[in-house]
Amino acid sequence: MDDEQRQRKKERMIAYRAEHREELAAAERARYASRREDEAFRQRNREKVAAYKEANPSTVRETKRQEYAKNRETYLASFRAYRADHREEIAASKRRYAEEHREEIKAAKRAAYLRTRDAQLARQKADPNLPAKQAAYRSDPVHRAAAYCWHSNRRAEKYGTPGRLKAADVLTLDGPCAYCGGVAGGWDHVVPLVAGGENTLANLVPACYSCNRRKGRSVAR
Ligand SMILES: [Zn+2]
C-alpha cells in the first residue's frame, strides 16, 4: 500500500466515523454496559479515564465548562435543593471550619482591613453626615452592646481570663443599674477582669456610667 492509498483509507475511515457517530457511540455504550459487572474491566477503564484526564487538563476543563454552561439552570437548581436539604449540616460544617481556622480567618480579615483602611477612613471623614451617623451608632443599644463585648473580649484575652461575651446575650441584662437602681447605660463585671473575674454573663450586671466609674477596679459588695 503506498502513501496515497494509505491516506485515502484514513480519510474514508474518518468520514465513516463522522457519518456513523451515533451508532458507534451506542455500540460503545452497549459494550460498556455488557461488561459493567466485570470489575477488572471497570478498573482498567477508570485508569484509562484518569490517565486521559491527567494528560489533557485543558480539554477536561473546557469540557466541564461547556457542560456547566449548557446545563447551568439544572446545576443551580440542584445546588439549591442540596443546600435546602442539608441546611443544618452545612451550618455545622461552616461553624467547625470557622472554629478550626479562627486565627487564619482573623489574620486574613485584618490584612483585608489594613489594605483598605486609609481609603475607608478618608471616605468616612469626607462624609458630611458623619457626626449624625456616629451619634446614631452610639445611641443604638445593639451597637453599644457589640462595642462593649468587643472591648471586654479584648481585655479578657489580654488578662488571660476565661469567657467570651456576645452582644445578643449581654442585651438580655437590661434592668436598672445594679448598684444605684438608676438608669443603666451599660454593663459592669462584678469581679473585674483585672482581678480575675470571668468574662461571662454570670459575672455581668447592668450598671450606670457613674457607678461603673466609681467602682473602677474594686470588687462590688
Ligand atoms: Zn448606678
Present the secondary structure layout.
Elements: H1 3-19, H2 21-34, H3 39-55, H4 57-70, H5 72-85, H6 87-100, H7 102-125, H8 130-139, H9 141-159, H10 167-170, E1 186-189, E2 204-207, H11 209-215
Zinc ion is lined by residues 177, 179-180, 182, 207-208, 210-211.
Could you explain how this protein is built, in words?
The structure is a single chain. This protein is mainly alpha-helical and 221 residues long. The protein has a domain at 136-215: DNA Binding (I), subunit A. The protein contains eleven helices and two strands, in the order H-H-H-H-H-H-H-H-H-H-E-E-H. The longest helix has 24 residues, at 102-125. It is elongated, with a radius of gyration of 34 Å. The mean pLDDT is 91. Zinc ion binds next to helix 11.
Q: Going across the major beta sheet, what is the strand order? A: 1-2
CATH architecture grouping of the domain at 136-215: Orthogonal Bundle
Number of helices: 11
The first-to-last residue Cα distance is 109 Å
Shape, principal axes of CA atoms: elongated
Q: Would you tell me the structural class of the helices and strands? A: mainly alpha
- Helix content estimate: 55-70%
Low confidence ranges: none
Biggest sheet architecture = 2 strands, antiparallel
Bound molecule kinds, no repeats: zinc ion
Mean pLDDT: 91
Please name the CATH topology of the domain at 136-215: DNA Binding (I), subunit A
Succession of helices and strands:
HHHHHHHHHHEEH
Beta-strand share of residues? under 5%
The tally of strands reads: 2
Question: What's the gyration radius in Å?
Answer: 34 Å
- CATH C-level label of the domain at 136-215: Mainly Alpha
